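Expect sequence, tokenised fold; for instance:
***
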Amino acid sequence: MQNSTLVYFYTYNIPLKTGNGFVVRNYSNLRSYVKLGYKITGIYVTTESNPDMKNIDVHFPEVNWEIINPVSASKLFKFQKRIGFWFGIHNKWLLESIFPFRSIINEDIIRKKDHSPNAIYHFESISTACGAYGVPEIKAIWSNHDYVSERFVKIRKTRGIKLTIRDRFKHFIYHKRIKKTEDLIAKSSKLIVTVSESETIKYKVRWPKLNIYLLPISWSVEKIINKNKNRVENGELNLLHLGRVDGFLGSQSLKYILLKVFPLISKELLDKIKLSVVGFIGETELSIEMKNIISTYSNVDVLGFVDDLKPYYANSDLHVVGATIATGSRTRIIESFVFGLPVISTRESADGLIGLENRSNILLADSPNEFADYLINILKNPDQLVSLKLNGRTLYDKYYHSKVVTKKLKNLLNKYVI
């Protein structure tokens, strides 16, 4: 059913069926608008002079795409951005000191507002939503991917890098400024939709008068994968680890498992565990470090980047997630629910996912000892994987299925935007 309302969908990454959490979130939201029958114009913000759009055209032939191709990072002088950053004054200068393409997006919004005053403006992430500030009375929706200011602090602490006094001061200022930009963008939005239940709660405390709601990610293909023969029945537990091996979160997760969890398992039981590691690994300094760690285990198989994860979901018994920050890994946990692969995760990695029940639809570990105990228990009692698989899929169908997400978006739009 065609809806006469126009939706401008701003993003700096092409929505794809699979990939990182950002592109999948884009796909999920865009698909909901298409299902609701809106007339959609996608605005792709990119520095590429000739971006490849063939994949998006295949997935969403109903969407007309425009490209914003910034020729320069900003229209401000350097001193204006420095004043905005260091002193936090003049909000537009501040925003542009953090988001260099902000003024170009803002000008595009103003042009479109003059032409289509009743349109909906949907912004994927803070980096495009920043353009809504200073344009009053538009129907702006901020699709929030991460609690940026909080994530900045967590990652800095997790990395444990010793900083100079100057760098510590700069990080302190950056944190204050990014929090102020969040305030400005939030107050410019008629609706904020999040991917995390816990972040939704935090935002509602911070901005109690704003319309903030969880809108979960749905997956592109929602058919459960037929699992191959359960290897645990043959005495071998086949684990799957997903994520870029030389990326911050992927390496952190893998280090947690290899350096903190595996050493707690006896050699006799560890010999019954096989870990398949799927994710790009390059030749960086971190890559070399990870290769050295992995080389100490004969039961770890590094497969690199693969285009299709379905065979690995089908051949695995358990998806292991060891990161201590809930960003990125949540997408893969949802994907495992879709495809019927049980998940064991640190509690931090799964933070914000709605409907989780420990030991019912997921295994949540509060420590390396508990993580190791879960693995040992599964080796001894593999039947529990069946209920974890079924309950995980039931959870997906209840909260994350595309029909559920589309209906929720429709209700939010009718109540707060249209």
